[in-house]
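Researcher: Please translate sequence to structure tokens.
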Amino acid sequence: MAEKGLLRRFFKWVCVFFIIITACTIISGYLLYTRLIADLPDINSLRNVQYQIPLSVYSKDNLLIAQFGEKKRIPIAIEDVPQQLIQAFIAAEDDKFFEHPGVNYKGLLRAGLQLALTGKKKQGGSTITMQVARNFLLNSEKTYIRKIKEIILAIRIEAEYPKNKILELYFNQIYMGHRAYGIAAAAQTYYGKSLNDLTLAEYAMIAGLPKAPSAYNPITNETRAIQRRNYVLRRMLELNYIAQDDYDKAFNQPSTAKLQYRSVELSAPYLAEMVRQTLYDQYGELAYTSGFKVYTTLSGVLQTAADQALRDTLHAYDERHGYRSTAGSNPDKKSNFMDIPIIGDTLPATVLSLNDKSATARLQNETLIEIPWENIKWSGKPISKIMKVGSFIRVRQLKNSTWALTQIPEAEGAFVSLNPTNGAILALIGGFDFLRNKYNRATQAKRQPGSGFKPIIYTAALEEGYTVASVINDAPIVIDDTSQQENEWRPENYNRKFLGPTSLRSALTHSRNIISIRLSKEIGVDKVISTALRFGFTQEQLPKTLSLALGSGYASPLQMAQVYATFANGGFLVKPYFIERIESNEGKFIYQAQPKRACPLCDNSQETMNHYAPRIISPAINFLMNSLLRDVVQHGTATRAKVLNRQDIAGKTGTTNDQRDAWFNGYTSSIVATAWVGFDNFAPLGNLETGGLAALPMWIEFMQTALKNIPETPLEMPDGIVKAFINPQTGLLAPAESKSGIWEFFQAEHVPTKFSSPYDESIVDENETTAKPVEALF
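Model: Translation complete:
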């Protein structure tokens, strides 16, 4: 009896012990559950998921320029996912997905037993819903607590969302390797296709990636990737998703995966960087993950034309100054041919054979090319002095599809084109090659504009009562300047000749420096500066001396294009801009540009001024300046542009001291463009390398595309302009019977009233003034 009582007490205590343990377990589990519940994220956040999508930049004609962001993702609705791809994922990841409540208890049990028996965690217990919970709501740490949270969240998600919504979240978020997130991005990354264009074998390959995107990657580990793909195909067959014939065909297919890069459809890296910086300044890091679609003002056709024009012009300059390498030398200093980079349009090549008429070479992609002597002779040396078999050279393909010997240009260039009506940037090139040098010369360069500044001086003079027929003496002038050894500055014209009494029209047409200096002296430097400020210059850019008459300040090519846009649009200052609109990834408008436009027919009311660009020169002055600047092309320093066979082209060349900068700023009423050539270190371009030779060809080549099928615009006289028959030597009226008389335009209030006599001679004041020495050329 005593033994039975002892045994009974033992069982009693055992029962009490188990009750206590059970109670403690329940209480602890409850406390843990409540704590976990309190820490769980809200599953309602899945209703409005913001996927991390890169920033995309497009031209105005919807051509992709660039993408910025680490993650490649293309969100897709579940309705657009092919059924067979869904089946492939179900077979690979979660064959009970449409049956379980978010958790596959059998799978978890198997994983738990594996852990208990071996001490090792076994993958395979996670359902698609649990992966959604982990990827959207939890971090990636591998702990038991996180697993419990994952299970709870999965059950909650299943209770709140339909299966298709869960699949959609999964398909758009899952990591697929090579920076691709989501199935649509994976299809583009590995196959360059949309989902609907994939084959069964490709579906299975993609469905096999989430388990281990690196280990089963078809790019980095093709053998294991095919094994994984075939496993997915077998599971699809076992689940009756595919027939045996389909299985056999897909099973025997080789891998077709090849890393794809969404090709940039339009090369505009300098402007793309301007867009990136603008959005980063406004949105910070969110700019790279919010899926913004930025549509710029660039024209694909004009940007391509500008890019080609700049490269052709720099090559032409380079070829005028000779080939810098010698036979057997390696200009790129690379011992491995495949390590030599492509720079701009210059491609590395290795010479295979030579004869007197041509050279045969091989490109890095194994293409064999022939370089005819016609495209080598620019070097000015025999072939044997330039290259030998085995030499590394650079080549480029010309417009006629032949190959030419080339080299990386040492000089740099920039090009900007605007719509003069609203300031929209139509084309922008900041240098020969963005990857080689990201410095954007189109917007960041501070270069002397040289004679490109002279139209501002002439505008100021016309406003002060001068006429285009006013005569000023083109004669030597001495300016006091204490900075000079002899305290004097003796400016010269480019050709170092003096023409005597010269009309303003002739002076600007032929870019006479002395006339600009005398004109600035007579109207005053302060008047020139105040006029330049209206054109968008700042005080910092404008020296307060007579050197300003020769363009001794500084400006960027973009700013010079803005200046000449005023002459093109009727006298209004438009503000350049490059972002037309910004859309969200869903297509909602975030920003729409509303530029102030030039409006020649508008009145001067306050309402007009609030909605339109400000008028900075009168219609009459603008007409006269257009008349002068058209003459620069027809009769002056820009006559090369006559090859375009148009009468409505106007502009001004610009060359600075020692030919350190070469410019051409030109326009029609529909488009304005500025071309610049120079060295980043301000070295001279060389003798005779003026704006008309070094920069104008870039502008002409661009305009051959830009003005194609664009009708000419006649120059129409506005109110306040009259014509008078004058003696061009004096600017005074000429008798009707005069054989040397010409018709000239005048503002009505400044038309001459006196007749010139055969013996009239103009007397020109040659008083000296003070200025900083500088020589601007045409």
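Researcher: Any highlights?
Model: The two ends are 128 Å apart (CA to CA).
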